[in-house]
Specification:
It is a single chain. The protein has 232 residues and is mainly α. It folds into two domains: 10-41 and 154-231, Helix-hairpin-Helix base-excision DNA repair enzymes (C-terminal) (Endonuclease Iii, domain 2, Orthogonal Bundle), CATH 1.10.1670.10; 49-150, Endonuclease III, domain 1. It contains 13 helices and no strands. Helix 3 (49-58) packs antiparallel against helix 7 (102-120) and helix 3 (49-58) runs antiparallel to helix 9 (139-150). The structure holds iron/sulfur cluster. Iron/sulfur cluster binds at residues 164, 167-168, 206-207, 212-214, 217, 219-220, 223, 225-226.
């Protein structure tokens, strides 16, 4: 991953900040991050849509690396949604418990796979409202599924997306549903899903929680937080 060595000059910053509306700013953020992280993809490993539904449930309060280790075992043991829907609770619990919240995750996974197989023939729905009726599927997961699986407009409001959007000044809330609405208004629909994947990459590499590397950030001249630090 390439680190962008940002060298700003004050007059350029003032020029850019003046007269720039939020849509323009969002478009610039999108293009800078596209340049910085050419490959934008989900950080969880999966091969089928139902697996993404399961993996994203396991990812709550757990690292993607640990989820991937656990799902390697889980998907080998239960290679289809139908097989997983028929699995014994105790067996699934033993496999997924390293991800934490083992009881509720096992319950949700088994219930969602049963619903998927009995009501949808194993085909993961492609709209957010229907996905929200599945046990354990919230707006973040539903957006991720429609964006990654079906290429539909999506804003995946995870911790990186919320934090970085607020720092830059594209959003002003810590509530995921509010940030999602705010970003949907200003980000081109076909850019939102990949932008959120890139926020994750940027949040890990540069805009790290509690110690953002603003001096190395490609968004420095666009970022409200960096501007406030310069003005302090
Ligand atoms: S300039 Fe600093 S706070 Fe703003 S996005 Fe970059 S690293 Fe984060």
């Amino acid at each position: 991953m390439r680190l962008y060595k940002y060298k700003y000059n004050a007059s350029a910053i003032i020029e850019k900040a003046e007269g720039m509306d939020l849509k323009e700013k969002a478009a610039l953020v999108v293009s800078r991050l596209e340049n910085e992280y050419p490959v934008a993809q989900c950080t969880l490993s999966y091969e089928d849509a139902w697996q993404l539904m399961v993996s994203v449930r396991l990812a709550a309060q757990c690292t993607d690396a640990r989820v991937d280790k656990v799902t390697e075992v889980l998907y080998n043991r239960y290679p289809t949604a139908e097989r997983l829907s028929e699995a014994a609770y105790d067996d699934v619990f033993e496999i997924v418990k390293p991800c934490g919240l083992g009881a509720s995750k096992t319950r949700d996974i088994l219930a969602s796979m049963k619903k998927l197989c009995s009501e949808y023939g194993g085909i993961v729905p492609d709209d957010i409202d229907t996905l929200l009726t599945f046990p354990g599927v919230g707006r973040k997961s539903a957006n991720l599924i429609v964006g990654d699986i079906y290429g539909k407009p999506a804003i995946v409001c995870d911790t990186h997306c919320i934090r970085i959007s607020n720092l830059i000044g594209l959003a002003d809330s810590d509530k995921p549903d509010v940030v999602e609405k705010q970003l949907r208004k200003i980000v081109e629909p076909d850019k939102g899903n990949d932008l959120c994947h890139r926020f994750v990459l940027h949040g890990r590499a540069v805009c790290i929680a509690r110690r953002p590397q603003c001096q190395n950030c490609c968004l420095n001249d666009l970022c409200d937080h960096a501007q406030a630090v310069r003005n302090a």
